């Protein structure tokens, strides 16, 4: 890139930097995005994006999952894994693995990657300060939590101190029992509770398509009303429904926009936030 091209990029980014400075942006970093590609170190590039966002005055909050990593560990331990309606059936042994992987493996990896560049990340679990308070979703699913309340005091305290919270989605009930919580749902609830400017979901797809087999049918911008129509007619189905529903709930709850991006693309956060065209799907309120 020539010096002049670099200057043009910076000028294009300037109004967005001004617009979002001081605003909270929740980034849900999915386990599939974390797995990355063979072409680059996805986690290192993600960390660069978070540090740059922080440096220009944005207040990022990272919420992460770890489904593929949990699956791998369960397989190593010969623990059978099953799902019901997109949710992992979580018995006591599986819950121990969920905590071990999310709190002991994935969370430290993300924190370390960010801190190598900026020394600003702090890892925590939804159990800490009872940040994610839950009730049991139903007995058949075992230790799967339904979010009852998001307590934001720990997250807000870290943000006030100029730090980046990195939150694993293990919740806790009123008795102190830990539960597995769907990371998409948790991220949306956290964004809503923090009154975030945006919530961004990094996953392993480029965004929403009107035709799943046609890359040219990518939907760049859509309202929650039109999105509901795509659910009703079956365009959006299966595992995407919980993610889309969490987007819609967050936007209805006051988050200005939700974004679905391919986290395997280098610097996808910067491309979506700081360029005119963007690279994924942006979901807005009713129009």
Polypeptide structure, described:
- The protein is α/β, with parallel strands linked by helices.
- The protein has one domain (3-284): Acetylglutamate kinase-like (Carbamate kinase).
- The protein is built from ten helices and 14 strands.
- It has helices at 3-20, 31-35, 42-55, 67-76, 92-115, 153-160, 183-193, 224-232, 240-252, 268-274, and strands at 24-29, 59-64, 83-84, 87-88, 121-125, 132-136, 145-150, 164-168, 170-172, 178-180, 198-203, 221-223, 257-262, 281-284.
- It has an eight-stranded mixed sheet, sandwiched between helices. Strands 3-4 form a two-stranded antiparallel ribbon. A two-stranded antiparallel ribbon has the order 6-7.
- Strand 6 (132-136) and strand 7 form a beta hairpin.
- Helix 3 packs across helix 5 and helix 7 runs parallel beside helix 9.
- The chain is globular, with a radius of gyration of 18 Å.
Main features:
ArgB, ATP binding, eight-stranded mixed beta sheet, Carbamate kinase, alpha/beta, 287 residues, single chain, acetylglutamate kinase, EC 2.7.2.8, acetylglutamate kinase activity, globular, 14 strands
Assess the beta-strand content as a share of residues: 15-25%
How many β-strand stretches? 14
SSE series: HEHHEHEEHEEEHEEEHEEHHEHE
CATH fold name: Carbamate kinase
Q: Strands of the largest sheet, in order across it? A: 5-8-2-1-11-13-14-12
Please report the number of helical segments: 10
Number of domains in the coordinates? 1
Structural class: alpha/beta
Q: Give unreliable regions as ranges.
A: none
Radius of gyration: 18 Å
């Amino acid at each position: 890139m020539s010096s002049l091209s670099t200057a043009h990029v910076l000028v294009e980014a300037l109004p967005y930097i001004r617009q979002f400075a001081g605003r909270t942006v929740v980034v849900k970093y999915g386990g599939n995005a974390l797995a990355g590609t063979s072409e680059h170190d996805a986690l290192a590039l993600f960390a660069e994006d978070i540090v740059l966002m922080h440096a220009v005055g944005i207040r990022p909050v990272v919420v992460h999952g770890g489904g593929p990593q949990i699956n791998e560990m369960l397989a190593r331990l010969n623990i059978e894994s099953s799902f019901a309606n997109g949710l992992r059936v979580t018995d006591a042994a599986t819950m121990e693995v969920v905590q071990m992987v999310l709190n002991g493996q994935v969370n430290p990896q993300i924190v370390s990657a960010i801190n190598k560049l900026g020394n600003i990340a702090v890892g925590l679990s939804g159990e800490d300060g009872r940040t994610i308070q839950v009730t049991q979703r139903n007995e058949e699913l075992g230790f799967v939590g339904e979010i009852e309340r998001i307590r934001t005091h720990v997250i807000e305290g870290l943000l006030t101190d100029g730090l980046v919270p990195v939150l694993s989605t293990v919740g806790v009930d009123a008795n102190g029992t830990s539960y597995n919580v769907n990371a998409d749902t948790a991220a949306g609830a956290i964004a809503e509770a923090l009154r975030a400017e945006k919530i961004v979901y990094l996953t392993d797809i480029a965004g929403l398509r009107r035709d799943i087999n046609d890359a040219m049918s990518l939907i760049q911008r859509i309202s929650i009303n039109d999105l509901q129509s795509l659910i009703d007619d079956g365009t959006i189905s299966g595992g995407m429904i919980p993610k889309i529903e969490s987007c819609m709930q967050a936007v209805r709850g006051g988050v200005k926009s939700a974004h679905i991006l391919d986290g395997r693309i280098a610097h996808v956060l910067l491309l979506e936030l700081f360029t005119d065209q963007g690279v994924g799907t942006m979901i807005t309120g009713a129009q």
